[in-house]
Amino acid sequence: MKSYIGIEDIFAHEILDSRGIPTIETEVYTDDGNIGRASVPAVTSPGQYEAHELRDGDQTRYMGNGVLKAVKVVNEHLAEKLTGMNVIDQEAIDRKMISLDGTSNKSKLGSNAILSVSLACAHAAANALGVGLYQYIGGIGGKKMPVPLVNVISGGRHADNSLSFQEFMIAPIGAESFKQGLMWCAQVSHTLKELLRDSGLSASFSDVGGYVPNLSGDEEAIRLIVRAIQKSGYRTGEHFAVAIDAAAGEMYNEAKAVGEEGQYYFWKQNRMLTREDMVKMWNDYCRKYPILSIEDGMAEDDFEGWEVMTDKLGDKIKLVGDNLFVTDKLRLKKGLDLKIANSIIIKPNQIGTLTETLGTIELAKTNGYTPIISCRSGETGDTTIADIAVAVNAKYIKAGALSRGESVQKYNRLLKIEEELRY
């Protein structure tokens, strides 16, 4: 196997994400004639502790969301500094960019600029070595297919409806293969659409692909999903489970805005809950429904709430930190010290390099936390997270709804990987 493949050139340009918001795509050219290409998601509502995207702020272009500054960082700065480096030395490349940035949150060069180069280098190295990206990252050990957590109903900031929780997902926990599980999810999703229409409810989609019905509350959404699973011929708890992304930080901030700090204001339903109320609600849902996981069931700064919730439910379901951890080892270490949550969402653009992403995954697995590889709400057709999920043998992946092309591309990539692993 080759031990040195030089970076010959790096070039970035501005593209659009799935919502028409600018983001960056980068190409890395190697001296043996190979190319690696990667684009990163655009973020419209970043967690307060995640790495900083570099955007233009020019209101005459894309309402200030352009990324020409990030493109310039890659083309006029990083390209010069990285040319000649060994493209198969991923850690050296990433450490070099982290050093050039010199900030704790990549606010100088921008996490979007840095990550696009980091991932493009990985793709270039894999192509130069003639292996799949999952094989390059995971070696001979990367061979386990994840279970998809498929978004079917949207709420919260993602939808103009009556639901407070951000995502309601289905998990085909009883499927014998990724291919079978994805087929099951498609059937349940279509059945849910029929149920909504038969009930006179909206079967239109949010901008992230989930259905957006106006219901009496979040629990009704769970009941509808259970009905769709059963009507499709599957059994809850055996074939399917339900996963929820509450994005509780939104309700926490809403309560704070009206002077009720430490509580949760479900503004769409005009309900104020204490953290004890929240835990009781989650416990009731877990008792009545086949709940696999609750993501961000408490706000990222409500550590007391996380402690209460973990004490009550930590041995029953997966309590997943997204904004709580933001794919950051330091945030995860704090969670480990406090003994809160038991699972972590992994989003490479929350931290900014592939090396740091893999480091956080390793720390999580070493301490018994379940890493869930995840997309963002503003995605591109890039399928890198599919390869990462297989490379690290992640149990689960969140790649979005089956109604969105940028999500389906990731699922299709996983179907292809599963075929490659089979043969």
UniProtKB/TrEMBL annotation:
Q: Name one GO cellular component term.
A: cell surface
Name its co-factor(s): Mg(2+)
Coiled-coil segments, which residues? none
Q: In which pathway does it act?
A: Carbohydrate degradation; glycolysis; pyruvate from D-glyceraldehyde 3-phosphate: step 4/5
Q: Which UniProt keywords apply?
A: Cytoplasm, Glycolysis, Lyase, Magnesium, Metal-binding, Secreted
Q: Which one Pfam family would you cite for this protein?
A: Enolase_C
Q: How is the cofactor bound?
A: Mg(2+) is required for catalysis and for stabilizing the dimer.
What biological-process GO terms show up in the record?
glycolytic process
The Enolase C-terminal TIM barrel domain extends over: 142-423
Q: Assign the protein's first listed, main location to one coarse class.
A: cytoplasm
Q: Name one GO molecular function term.
A: magnesium ion binding
| EC numbers, comma separated | 4.2.1.11
Does the keyword field hold Cell wall biogenesis/degradation? no
Q: Where does substrate bind?
A: H158, E167, E295, D322, S374, C375, R376, S377, K398
Reaction(s) catalysed (UniProt annotation): (2R)-2-phosphoglycerate = phosphoenolpyruvate + H2O
Annotated residues for binding of (2R)-2-phosphoglycerate: Q166, K347, R376, S377, K398
Q: Where is the active site?
A: K347
Residue ranges of the Enolase N-terminal domain? 7-137
Location of the protein in the cell: Cytoplasm; Secreted; Cell surface
- Superkingdom of the organism of origin: Bacteria
Q: Where does Mg(2+) bind?
A: D245, E295, D322
Describe the family membership recorded for this protein in Swiss-Prot or TrEMBL.
Answer: Belongs to the enolase family.
What is this protein's function per UniProt? Catalyzes the reversible conversion of 2-phosphoglycerate (2-PG) into phosphoenolpyruvate (PEP). It is essential for the degradation of carbohydrates via glycolysis.
* Name of this chain's protein: Enolase
* Species for this entry: Monoglobus pectinilyticus
